[in-house]
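Lab notebook, bench 4. The sequencing result for the construct came back, and we need a structural model before the next group meeting so we can plan mutations. Quick request posted to the team channel:

Model the 3D structure of this chain.
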Amino acid sequence: MFKTICVGYDGSEPSDNAVRMACDLAEKYNSSVHIVHTPHPETVTFALGAVAGYHVATTMPSSEETAKAAAIMLEKAKATAADAGQASVTAHIGEGEAAQSLIDYAKEVDSDLIVTGRRGLGNLSALVLGSTSQSVGHLASCAHLTVK
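Done. Here's the predicted structure in token form:
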């Protein structure tokens, strides 16, 4: 049913659940899993917040900090996938707006399904459904599954 599954990842608990769900479906359908992380200040803060000297409220992350945070996030996502039985996943760092980056990558790899967490680490403007998940649901040309 699904040959290629893309999953959006921002390091939040719902995105961990999305990775687990994608891996579960991949096991059932013998699918490949592609994890997409598009770094933003919120996710860089989340990944680097424990680093001494990183001032969350007053400093925008540098390109080096952004790259470091993206690598941390993807390692965390790959570890979650391995724990869920998928040791071989493809990891991709997106650019720009998270939803559009995920949709573009899903088209590039001919994804049958995009899995996202219901709420992530993004801004608080979308209280019920995260803005990335909401945008993916509206704009994706393939199936979209949102998990809690």
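The longest strand covers residues 32-37.
Will bring this to the meeting.
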